[in-house]
Amino acid sequence: MKHVTTLEELTTALAELPRPIGFVPTMGFLHEGHISLARRASEECASVVASIYANPTQFAPDEDLETYPRDIPRDKAMLEEAGVDVVWIPTTEVMYPAGYQSWVTVEDVTKPLEGARRPTHFKGVSTIVAKLFNAVRPDKAYFGQKDAQQAVVIKRMTQDLSYPIEIVVCPIVREPDGLAMSSRNTYLNAEQHQAALSLSQGLKLAQAAFEDGERDANALRQIVIDRVNAEELTDLQYVSCAHPDTLEELEGDVNRCLISMAVFVGETRLIDNVLLE
Amino acid sequence: MKHVTTLEELTTALAELPRPIGFVPTMGFLHEGHISLARRASEECASVVASIYANPTQFAPDEDLETYPRDIPRDKAMLEEAGVDVVWIPTTEVMYPAGYQSWVTVEDVTKPLEGARRPTHFKGVSTIVAKLFNAVRPDKAYFGQKDAQQAVVIKRMTQDLSYPIEIVVCPIVREPDGLAMSSRNTYLNAEQHQAALSLSQGLKLAQAAFEDGERDANALRQIVIDRVNAEELTDLQYVSCAHPDTLEELEGDVNRCLISMAVFVGETRLIDNVLLE
A20, B138, B188, B228 - which has most CB atoms within 10 Å? Predict the structure, then answer.
């Protein structure tokens, strides 16, 4: 596996890779969720490029950029093992040079849910993903369903901005106890981890109700709310039952919906979701 | 020369082109200025792709999108003659599909000059050029110095958004009488054409003064203003003496500057510029 830093090193390395090229963008501190993307890319593509970059413009000033966990040697070993050919680990000097002033924005689908609580987040996400797409020029790019709204935003941006790139969204990978894998899980102590299980358990209860015929959006939301609020250490931010493509909040009977949520457990903000159809 | 319409047709055609690929984006109704870009691309690159698309998002509602001149058969013949291998002529259904909601913006350098008079123009320009870059994935892209601010905006966007594309800015091509070539010159009657010569003549006087040692920004601007205002049919919008990279307006002595201007002649808005250094 080749490790490159600058845009020039990347461009040189890419010229030697057979196509199709699969691309896996990450912020590092990898877990089985990321590795499932790299493995899928490796199965589907002749070459795989991954990136590791904790993008500052998608963190608000009060968020955890400074403390975001890092372990590059471990990340590199995991990516190589998963079949990655080139890993790009740019510096902020490479990504945001002096005088930087260009942004990619996506409008409607960034407004609700995470966008409503983290108003500058998706401008940072769409900009960095566009930059990574521009530099890597992949044929396919792999994202996790864990960040459900991000996947919708990136699909919309890819179509709107005429990228000839297929976006592949891969299923959430969970711990054996059901907790959705996240680099931020490392912030949780044992008690908090236990309380955090209420997210996936709430979603599972809603899914079971849906499979039993429950179609009312409010009832489905309430099942999740009740399970999370049964834990003392949780502080629920939102539970949404929304259209899976437009992310518009639904009322009344639903045939297809994305149930998604954000919950603080201590200082740690966790998200999870399930697609019901 | 291959003519393609959809993104899929373009992607298929591109796969067969040897690199480096040079790219010449146009709005059609081509003149010698455009053709100089295509010829330069043809000299410098193994393959040349051109696009023809009068991008609606860079025209304000009161501007001339509806009447913008068109002659696709003539444009195609001229591009083929200049060595273009693939011409992409997308429809608005291809470029702005239903639900479109993504934009590329460049901040500081879009604010003065044309940006101040046409506040939505550069958002349209940077978005369409990004889309064209994403679809064509060229190695080099060719723009005219005639649209001086556009060239600055595109260079900034290309660097900021990590495009591995070299931006080549080619000199203004002029009629024998000095009028800068523009598709909009077709709107001018003989009298207006005569009055429009004051733009290039004013710039030429400023250049001569600069070469004779005049360094004061105000004095240089005033030379151009006086020449344009000497014509009855002209209505001067602005004359600027600005930093060639940041486009900040300059005061006092200048060693390097972009003198640029916009003038209405009848209903037709003309621009021209000269780089003094």
Answer: B138
* Separation in Å, CA of A68 to nearest CA in chain B: 24
- Which among B97, B106, B160 has the least Cβ separation from residue A159? B97
Q: For residue B140, count other CB atoms closer than 10 A to its CB.
A: 18
Q: Say if B176 falls within a structural domain.
A: no
Q: A78 lies in a domain?
A: yes
pLDDT tens track for A250-274: 999 999 999 999 999 999 999 999 9
Q: Is the pTM of this model over 0.95?
A: yes
Q: Which residues of A touch B11 (CB under 8 A)?
A: 164
User: Where does a domain end: B140, B170, B200?
Assistant: B170
Q: Give the span between the Cα atoms of A73 and A121, in whole angstroms.
A: 28
Q: B104 to chain A: nearest residue by CA? A: A104
- Cβ contact (<8 Å) for A102 and B126? yes
- Report if residue B19 sits inside a domain: yes
Is A141:A167 a contact under the CB 8 Å cutoff?
Answer: yes
User: What is the residue-wise DSSP string for A74-96?
Assistant: HHHHHHHHTT-SEEE---HHHHS
Q: Which of B105, B133, B135 sits opposite A102 (nearest CB)?
A: B105
Q: Does A107 touch chain B (CB under 8 A)?
A: yes
Domain with A272, as residue range(s), is 183-276
How far, rounded to the nearest angstrom, does the alpha carbon of residue B209 sit from its chain's CA centroid?
A: 26
- Same structural domain for residues B152 and B195? no
Chain B residue with minimum CA distance to A246: B99
Residue B103: its H or E element: strand B102-106
Is B34 assigned a catalytic role? Answer: yes
Look at residues A147, A170, A193 and tell me which one is the last residue of a structural domain: A170
Mean pLDDT by 10 residues, chain B (277 residues): 98 97 98 98 98 97 93 98 98 96 98 97 98 98 98 98 98 98 96 98 98 98 98 98 97 98 97 97
Claim to verify: residue B28 and residue B145 sit in the same structural domain: yes
ipTM at complex level: 0.96
